[in-house]
Amino acid sequence: MLSPDSLLSRVIMYALLAALLALLIWRAVRKDRREYQHFKALRDTTSRQRILRKWVLESLLFFGGSAAVILVLVWQFVPRMLAQVEGYPAALAFRQFVADSNGVFVAVVIGVVVAAIAGGVLFVVLLRNSTEIPTIGDIGALLPRNRQELGYGVALSLNAGVVEELLFRLAVPALVFGITGNAAVAIVGSILLFAALHLYQGAAGIVGALAIGTLLMLIYLATGSILWPILAHALIDLRSLVLIPMVIYRVHRVSGLEDVDGDLPVDDGGDPPSRS
After folding, report:
1. Confidence band for 91, pLDDT divided at 50, 70 and 90
2. In Å, how far from its chain's centre is CA 239?
3. For residue 200, what is the DSSP state?
4. Sign of the torsion angle spanned by Cα atoms 252, 140, 169, 217
5. Which of 27, 40, 156, 168 has the most CB atoms at less than 10 Å from its CB?
6. What are the domain boundaries of the chain?
7. Residue 262: per-residue pLDDT
8. What digits encode the pLDDT tens for the residues 160-179?
9. Coil, helix or strand at residue 19
10. Mean per-residue pLDDT for 27-50?
11. What pLDDT does 263 receive?
C-alpha cells in the first residue's frame, strides 16, 4: 500500500489517476460511442451476442482490474474518507436522528425500499401490453431480443453491479481522497465521472446516471458497506435488461435461431416478436 506521508506515493497516485481518467475519457468519447453505434446497426443475434460477450469480458477486466489495482494501493484511505464524512455536521445530525427514532426510521427505510422494488415490478407488469419501453437514455439496443441474449442481460447487470461499484464508489473516491485529503471532492468527482461514462447514451443517459450514481453513493456512505450499492446497482440493471424484456417483449419465449437471410428471430410459434 501507498503511504499517505510519502512524496513518491503522492506522485504515484497522481499518475494512476491521470492514467485512469485518460482511459475513461477515451472510452466515453471514442470507444463506447463508436462501438454502440455499430451495435445498434446489427440485426443478426449471433453478431450481437459476440459483442455482448466481448463487453462483459472487457468490463470485467478493465473496470474490475482497475478497481483491484487501485484498492491494493490505496485501501488505507477508504476508512479515512468514511471517517471524515462521518464528521460532517449533516452526517452527525443524521446519526442522531436515527438514534432518536428508536428503530422507527430503519423500519420506514426498509418499507420504502420494499415498496419501491414491488412498485417497480408492478409498473413493468402493468406495461406488459405497451409498445413503448420505459428506459432512461438511449439503451434500447441493449435490451435482449431472445432467450440467448437474455443471459447476456443477466451477465451485464451482475457484472456492472460489482465492478462499477467497486471502481466508482470505492476505488476512485479513495484514490482522489488520497491525493486531496477532501472527502467531498472525492465523492462528487467520482459521481461526475460515473455519469460522464454514460455519454454514449445521450444527455438523458448522463442525467440518469448522475441521479443513480448519487443514490448509490448515498447508500454506500449511509451503510458504510459496498455490498448494498452493489446489490442496488445490479437490481436496477436487471430491471432494465431482464425484467422489462421478459415482461413487455416476452423474449424468454423467443428463439435466437435466425433464418438464412439473417432476419430478426422468431418465437417458437413462428410469429415475429412485437417491437416498437
Report:
1. confident
2. 12
3. G
4. negative
5. 168
6. 7-253
7. 40
8. 999 999 999 999 999 999 99
9. helix
10. 91
11. 43
pTM: 0.84
d(CA 195, CA 172): 14
Contact 155, 55 (CB under 8 A): no
Distances (CA, A) of 172 to 24, 186, 214, 244, 272: 12, 8, 14, 31, 45
SS3 275: coil
Q: Buried (b) or exposed (e) across 127-157, using 16+ Cβ within 10 A?
A: eeeeeebebbbbbeebbbbbbbbbebbebbb
Amino acid identity, position 123: F
Asked whether 153 and 144 are in contact (CB, 8 A), the reply is: yes
The residue written with cell numbers 446516471 in the block is 209
Please give the grid coordinates belonging to residue 227. Answer: 455490498
* Rounded Cα–Cα distance for residues 236 and 271 (Å): 30
Find where cell 461499484 sits.
165
Residue 271 scores a pLDDT above 80: no
Give mean pLDDT, residues 182-202.
93
